[in-house]
Amino acid sequence: MLPHRKALLCLLLSGAVSIAWGSYIALTSPSGAGAFKAIYYPARCLIEHIDPYNVADLQQKYTSEGGKFPPKPAEEFLFRRAMLTCVNLPGSLLLIAPLAMLPWRVAALLWMVVTASALLLAAVLIWKAAAAEALKPSTALICLLLANTELVLGMENLAGIVVGLCVIAVWCFVEERFVLAGIVCLAVSLALKPHDAGFVWLYFVLAGGANRKRALQTLGLTAALTLPAILWVHHVAPQWFGEMRANLHTLAAHGSVNDPGPASLTFHSADSVISLQALFSLVRDDPRFYNLASYLASGALLVAGAVRVLRSPSTKLNAWLALAAISALSMLPVYHRAYDAKLLLLAIPGCALLWSEGGPVKRIAGVVTTLALLATADVPASILLVLMNNLKVSAAGMWGRLSIALIFHPAPMALLATGILYLWIYYRRTMVAASTERGR
Fold first, then answer.
1. What kind and span of H or E run contains 300?
2. Considering the entire predicted model, what is its pTM?
3. Are 306 and 202 in contact (CB under 8 A)?
4. C-alpha span between 272 and 264 (Å, rounded)
5. Could you give phi then psi for residue 273, rounded to 5 degrees?
6. Per-domain residue ranges for the chain?
């Protein structure tokens, strides 16, 4: 029992380091807690019957309440574009509305506490599931992830609580404990940020049986949360959908904040895009090319996995292997950043199961999962950013593009490798099990 206590203490210490560091960023950086501002002030607008998707109205609301901008013009432009252009769905605005009724400092503190608590609880639950199979490697992997959540907590990004709640829900469903709580957690996660939790929810739909029932119950609760939100937003801002689409296009435009290519405002940052678009944009910086290539590559893998899930029995081992693949592959088709990849917590039980079995797959799974966690970790990303800026690596020429992709922006390839590995293992094992069953 003593090794388990030491391992749990390591987990808590890793989380404490990130909480302390994240709190420092939130309190001292000009853009600290900026991601929470991006939803707090739109929710305040909605409460006061101001259109949150109108950029001018939102920014006026921010300044009228004493909101400050970074001192440098370039940083101010980035802040206005990234933090004060609302692209959040109505469901997230409704769920944040109770906090938006509170003063900024109180709301930001509470959000930090809730986010840190959700991530820590999710990490501990995953550790409990994985440590029974392989204590040391699973503890090391979770500590690595927890020690690299400074940006999630410092920016108070919505992804922190979304990933935390999603992982908690998965543990509840797979372990068949506190199922009702899992339904609530997954429903809130879907309402806040569906492109993070959506593929996880879809797995439970395809898995069938009790899992499908829970997924449909989750969908019903999500609809119950989002429908009133849509009606409320439509009442305040009837043109909200067109404005939100325009805001999304503005942020994704060539050279803007969410542009995945080398011209992006955030390409040379520790918070760059990690989807496959970022990789394909280095081949050809044209949305028509890199979007299609990303959809085809990741879509083929996800469809292959979905077909296999439909044809396979839903066991605990199968679930953790499938979810390991989903945690990586779901980051690839559309816009995601490193903070969304904390969903890789779901890959750790599958890795622990393979580790406990031994053989060459054990080491391959351990290495690939570690590389995925490192490639999406905050501290290594910051180090690579400093090296790239100091070395002044150019994206001109094939060698420049390859060096950037392999050395300085490895996340898309690491996630792709992780997703393919776990999908292959899941596919092979379920096929072998099906053949054995037919032979009896």
1. helix 287-310
2. 0.93
3. yes
4. 9
5. -70, 140
6. 269-433
- Identity at 371, one-letter amino acid code: L
Say if CB 403 and CB 393 are below 8 A apart: yes
Q: Give 326-369 as a DSSP string.
A: HHHHTTSSS--BGGGGGGGGGHHHHHHHHHHH-SHHHHHHHHHH
**Residue whose token pair is 């593929």:** 199
- pLDDT tens, the chain, 440 aa long: 557 889 999 999 999 999 999 999 888 877 778 889 999 999 999 999 999 999 999 999 999 998 888 877 777 777 888 888 999 999 999 999 999 999 999 999 999 999 999 999 999 999 999 998 889 999 999 999 999 999 899 999 999 999 999 999 999 999 999 999 999 999 999 999 999 999 999 999 999 999 999 999 999 999 999 999 999 999 999 999 999 999 999 998 888 889 898 888 777 776 788 999 998 988 888 999 999 999 999 999 999 999 999 998 888 999 999 999 999 999 999 999 999 999 999 999 999 999 998 888 889 999 999 999 999 998 888 787 777 666 665 656 666 666 676 777 889 999 999 999 999 999 998 887 666 656 55
Structure tokens that stand for 79 in this block: 């802040």
Tell me the CA distances in angstroms from 388 to 259, 383, 392, 434, one per residue in order. Answer: 19, 9, 6, 49
Hey, what are 333's tokens? 């088709």
Q: Which residue blocks in 176-286 are alpha helix, DSSP H?
A: 179-192, 194-207, 209-236, 240-252, 276-280
